[in-house]
Amino acid sequence: MNIDINNRLHSVCRDRWRSTAPVCMIRGLLCCLLMFCGFGLFLSDAYAAAAADELNCVLCHKYRGLSRIDEAGDFRLYYINKGLFNKGPHKRVQCKDCHADIDKIPHDPAEKVDCTIQCHLTEPSGNEKFTHKPVAEVLAKSVHGTVDKGEEDVQYPEDYPYCTDCHDQPLYRPLSFFKGQAAGVSERGLSRCKTCHQTGDFAEDFYNHVTSRLQKMRVSSEIVKLCAKCHGDEEFQERHGLQGNVVASYWETFHGKAAYFGSDEAPDCIDCHVVYGENVHSIAGRASRASATHEANVSATCRASECHADAGEQIAGYQVHTDYGDPDKYPLQYYMLKFFKYLMAGVLYFFITIIFLELLRRLFPDFSFIKQPEEKRQSTISTAAKQ
Amino acid sequence: MKLSEQATELLHDAMRRNKTSDPEREEIETLIERLPDDRVLLYKNVVSNPIGDLPRYSIHIRLQHLLTFTTFLLLAFTGLPVYFIDAFWAEPFSQMLGGIDVTRVIHRTLASIMIFSMLYHVVTITGGTIYSIVLGKFDIRRTVIPGLKDLRDMKEDMLYFSGRRTQRPEMDKFMYKQKIHYFAAAFGNFVMIFSGSAFLFPDIWAGALPGGWAAYFQDIMRIAHSHEALLALVVIAFWHWYNVHLAPGRFPMQWTFLTGKITREHQMEEHFLEYLRNLVELPEERRFLSTFLDHFDLTEQERPVVGADPAPVPEG
Question: For residue A289, is it within any domain?
Answer without folding.
Answer: yes
